[in-house]
Amino acid sequence: MSQMPQLAACPSCEEPLESGDRFCGACGYDLTAVPAPPDDNPTVAVNGAAPRPPSAAASVDWPVAPEADTSDTPAPVVLPTDIDGRESAGSDSPGVRFDRPAQPPSAPASPPPPPSPAHAPQPAAQPGARPAAQASAEPDEYPLAAPLPPEAPPADPRTADLPTPPAGLKVCVACRAGQVDRDGYCENCGHAQPRERDHMEQELGSVAAVSDRGLRHHRNEDAFTVSSTALSDGSPAVVAIVCDGVSSATRPDEASLAASRAANESLLAALPRGTHPQQAMHDAILAASEAVNSLADRSAPAHEHQPHVNAPACTIVGSVVTPSLLIVGWVGDSRAYWVPVDRSSPPARLTEDDSWAAQMVAAGLMNEAEAYADERAHAITGWLGADAYELEPHTASFKPDRPGVVVVCTDGLWNYAEAAEEMAEVIPPDAADRPLHSAQVLVGHALDGGGHDNVTVAVVPFPAPPQGAGSA
């Protein structure tokens, strides 16, 4: 029995072996199937060193250049194409192969034609190389499958004809698939839904108002109402009410909304009965105060356990414009401005703030610039609410001798145009003809300035146009 060759490592996985192993302990390779190495009887040279094995390149018969002669005939040039062979990639282009038997040398002047496939010598197979017959049988190019048709893009939720949601359910404005929960977020994509009061616009005849949440607040705590009615003599009257919720109080958005609606309803009821517009404005502010007071939680335990919680509160400013009178009323720091159509005439501020800064100026302790530069400038001293001090509604009556517009706004606007001259510069010259556009411009001015607060403004042309006439 032939002796099993001794191996140091498995031929399959190269795991080290021990003497006498018949199978690899790692991969199970049969070590008895390994052929024995051939006998090696090297020829020893005189100096004792074994000669190098003959190189395969020695088997190639290279053409020998003829000896140089003294004649003028140039020596023939031997090109690489004069040597038969096949490239390693398997193509039929001429080249040099060192693993094929020697071929008889060909005449340098005329290279022989390529051998036919039947008689051409085949090179030795090498790992990774395709046989020549297989290479010639395969096509040079493979046909590609036709591309799949492009998938239809998802429907644009802004223009797609989506199914109408069931009654009483709100659908997300972003994905138009999920329902909106009680907190105002989509149950499908989690997108926060815009609140109805984040941005509001209204145009009614010749009066218009715009309210915006601003860029810093998470909700809009302002509110407004605009309306028109007729006095007892049949002349028109235009009403605009603007309220600003006090952020440090609870539910300021509810307070401003309740106050604006109550004041508007009171004016619409009193003016047609013949009540003087100034008295009607005074009574409307009292009605607004009662509406805000009714929002307060008057239970004693609630205030005992939460002494830091303030009752709902807001400020208010309103105007009534008739063919001959301009009435304003206010509590807090919301303002009304007069801007004449003829900009050569001076504008004016029609209200005085119930604020710390205004008190300092009225007492002569500071000038207006110093007072409003103080960090306490916007601390209000008058407001509507159950915890307000003694309520003192402010009203004033004017008889302008020229046409113009009344700008009724919260501090979210006049913070960026405090002086009457600044307000006149911001409002467009055609404000009397385009009140809605003018209100939009004023709100945009505040947002461009930073939008640190809610912004609300109503633009009311004077004199009040006849009933049925609207803005251009």
Automatic annotation (TrEMBL):
- Extract the SMART domains matched here: PP2C_SIG, PP2Cc
Q: Where is the composition biased (Low complexity)?
A: 121-145
Q: Which residue range or ranges hold the PPM-type phosphatase domain?
A: 206-462
Region Disordered: which residues?
31-163
> Which InterPro entries does the UniProt record give?
PPM-type-like_dom_sf, PPM-type_phosphatase-like_dom, Znf_ribbon
Tell me the superkingdom of the source. Answer: Bacteria
Q: Where is there biased composition of kind Pro residues? A: 102-120, 146-156
Which protein, by its recorded name, is this? Serine/threonine protein phosphatase PrpC
Annotated source species: Streptomyces umbrinus
